[in-house]
């Protein structure tokens, strides 16, 4: 049947409220797979937050995403990809008055203004992230080109801390800019910057720490579709992999959902490297730990027994093995699933309300 993201609504919304209350001017980011919730749900949630927490700007990744966001969000929508005449010049969405464009080159702003005379823009500066942005030497020209349509500056920084110097340089060099949108600057860094630049409005753009910042409110569970006892040496799967004694379990959730799909590794610490090496060695030996685990009813999720794949996941289902000595689940039971929500596509998302809480 399904692999489902269950959201403890009251707990999740309490976290959203807390985050918005502590991060003044926060701009929620909704893009890609909608952080596992789907962009529709997060756009609706942003609209709810616009009503009760004053969210007045929502950021999306692309112009394509902007069309859907504008339909569901009643205040302004910022597009994070920079406006490029050759890519975006013909889009009908350009003229939407609620749209705020990101620009990185004077020529692009001139082009935009010939198509949409009053287009509002933010001017992106190139940071050490080295993705999009005008070089600091070209930035004054970009600001001049933006003219009266300029809402502010924008900087996208790498993950981690240590951004104070880099951000301070921009703020110092361009004192006429009253508002900056900043990505990946911590609350502590924002606090210090606000103290140092009291006349400037600093607005953090946040996706992950907002939507996924309360992991205890989020669980993914998958339906057990089939369970069969197996003897040692029995084979299963497309590749006829041999199993130990126990039970073979067929469970919802496969590559189509992003189950067990890693994004290119961003292994940072020695410990993470050791884990990757160890898992790689097991994988080479045909043993791959699955993200599915078996929790006995009412059990602690942290004590759930991890299960091993019989073979790599299929499009819609996975084959996992429950060893002898462990009570197998029944058809219709659910397994817990550990997923990276930024690369996950649920069949369904269930948001509990206070009265449905258990
Ligand atoms: C994706 C993105 C964000 C949000 O990043 P998170 O790590 O999810 O908070 C902010 N700014 C820009 C420019 C982005 O592309």
What is this structure's SSE topology?
Elements lengths: L2 E5 L1 H14 L4 E2 L10 H15 L3 E4 L2 H10 L3 E7 L2 H4 L10 E5 L2 H10 L4 E6 L13 H8 L3 E7 L7 H10 L5 E5 L3 H10 L4 E6 L1 H4 L6 E13 L4 E2 L4 E2 L3 E7 L17 H15 L3 E7 L10 E5 L7 E7 L10 E4 L10 E4 L7
Parallel strand pairs: 1-18, 2-9, 3-4, 4-5, 5-6, 6-7, 7-8, 8-9
Antiparallel strand pairs: 1-10, 10-13, 10-17, 11-12, 13-16, 14-15, 14-17, 15-16
Helix pairs in contact: 5-6
This protein binds pyridoxal-5'-phosphate.
Key terms:
elongated, binds pyridoxal-5'-phosphate, Lyase, Ornithine Decarboxylase, Chain A, domain 1, eight-stranded parallel β-sheet, 27% strand, single chain, alpha/beta, 10 helices, TIM Barrel, 358 residues, 2 domains
Folded structure, characterized:
Helices cover 28% and strands 27% of the residues. It is an alpha/beta fold. The chain folds into 2 domains: 209 residues, TIM Barrel (Alpha-Beta Barrel), CATH 3.20.20.10; 134 residues, Beta Barrel (Lyase, Ornithine Decarboxylase, Chain A, domain 1). The strands form 3 sheets. An 8-stranded parallel sheet has the order 2-9-8-7-6-5-4-3. Strands 10-13-16-15-14-17 form a 6-stranded antiparallel beta barrel. Strands 11-12 form a two-stranded antiparallel sheet. The radius of gyration is 24 Å and the shape is elongated.
């Amino acid at each position: 049947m399904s692999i489902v993201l269950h959201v403890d609504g009251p707990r999740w919304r309490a976290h959203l409220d807390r985050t918005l209350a502590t991060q003044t001017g926060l701009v929620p980011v909704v893009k890609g797979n909608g952080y596992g919730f789907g962009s529709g749900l997060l756009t609706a949630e942003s609209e709810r937050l616009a009503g009760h927490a004053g969210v007045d700007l929502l950021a999306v990744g692309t112009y394509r995403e902007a069309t859907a966001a504008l339909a569901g969000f009643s205040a302004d929508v910022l597009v994070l990809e920079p406006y490029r005449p050759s890519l975006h010049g013909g889009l009908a969405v350009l003229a939407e008055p609620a749209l705020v464009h990101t620009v990185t080159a004077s020529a692009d702003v001139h082009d935009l203004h010939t198509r949409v005379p009053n287009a509002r823009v933010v001017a992106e500066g190139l940071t050490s992230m080295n993705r999009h942005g005008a070089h600091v030497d070209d930035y004054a020209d970009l600001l001049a080109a933006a003219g009266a349509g300029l809402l502010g500056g924008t900087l996208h920084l790498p993950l981690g801390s240590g951004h104070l110097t880099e951000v301070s340089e921009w703020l110092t060099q361009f004192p006429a800019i009253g508002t900056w949108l900043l990505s990946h600057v911590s609350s502590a860094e924002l606090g210090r910057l606000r103290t140092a630049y009291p006349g400037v409005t600093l607005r953090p753009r946040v996706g992950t720490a907002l939507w996924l910042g309360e992991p205890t409110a989020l669980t993914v569970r998958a339906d057990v579709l089939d369970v069969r006892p197996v003897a040692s040496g029995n084979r299963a799967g497309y590749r006829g992999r041999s199993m130990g004694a126990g039970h073979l379990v067929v469970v919802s959730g496969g590559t189509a959902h992003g189950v067990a799909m890693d994004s290119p590794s961003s292994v940072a610490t020695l410990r993470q490297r050791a884990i990757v090496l160890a898992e790689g060695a097991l994988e080479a030996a045909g043993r791959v730990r699955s993200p599915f685990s078996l929790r006995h009813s009412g059990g602690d999720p942290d004590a759930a027994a991890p299960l091993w794949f019989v073979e790599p996941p299929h499009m819609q289902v996975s084959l996992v093995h429950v060893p002898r000595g462990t009570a197998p689940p029944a058809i219709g039971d659910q397994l817990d699933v550990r997923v990276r929500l930024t690369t996950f596509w649920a069949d369904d998302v269930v948001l509990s309300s206070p009265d449905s809480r258990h």
